[in-house]
């Protein structure tokens, strides 16, 4: 008898639990149904198919705020004095090709961080103050910015007031007796920085910049893309046979006559973290393999970068507005100088300038 009551009680408990479970599932599903319905309505308003709820990559999904008013883009009028697209259909950024209000409205809500690396080894520390102060005024103003300074003189790093959301990290690196080595080691340090400090941030960007330069105009969201290269101001009117690529086939930076698109700067490049990581890693290992065989490319990492960009086409190309040289007069097609190398006395600031001048 007792056994029978126990069985009955157990059945009641099991059945009630089952009914409660069914009720719970029903409520949960109908709630999710309402949420999906709401989402579908939003998607439909924004032109997405009702069942298109697959998450898209942040990089390629550009959401503009509703009701933003800006000048109507023309499909007929625009810059005609310069080329604004490469043969592989990457944009070439010149003043007059983009709307900065629109770009800021698209990129600011993405909450990205834009990092910059800059090397100030030996006497080059003297350029750091102007670089940092002008970056405050022009480089990704209003964005989260993290500048990494690599120097052998951390105590001499200047104190620069940085706006909210912007920060500076100073990392110690060994000094060197050869400027070629300092220049070349940048790739290795960029590679390890991305591996150690900036991992798993697939939406973030990094730019690698020369320190002997100042910002004079906006450098902002128009420069963001997967792999970004800057056209060198010294060669953009020349034929490719005049580009100072590495011409010895023994080097891994070799480009044969008839090869090469543009001559890109070693003093400014960037893009998404994983793209820049791949670039830095490749250039570093090619540079080191060359060194093992006793060969150093004509312009060190700039030569390797040019080789890299020949094979791995940049997804966005920045015009020489993004790295001019102060000693060059401003050409008419350059409507604004955004970043420019200062005039410097090589003999005074490079550790082995005299010896290398004789090379
Ligand atoms: N650099 C440095 N110390 C040196 C030589 C070079 O910190 O003694 C770094 C610095 O960031 C510099 C970059 O390497 O901007 C490239 O060298 P440099 O500007 O002299 O090359 P250039 O622009 O004249 O070709
Ligand atoms: Mn420089």
UniProtKB/TrEMBL annotation:
Residues binding Mn(2+), per UniProt: 210, 212
Compartments, record wording: Membrane
Cofactor comment text: Binds 1 Mn(2+) ion per subunit.
Name of protein: Globoside alpha-1,3-N-acetylgalactosaminyltransferase 1
Positions bound to an alpha-L-fucosyl-(1->2)-beta-D-galactosyl derivative: 232, 302
Keyword hit for Acetylation: no
Bilayer disposition of the protein: Single-pass type II membrane protein
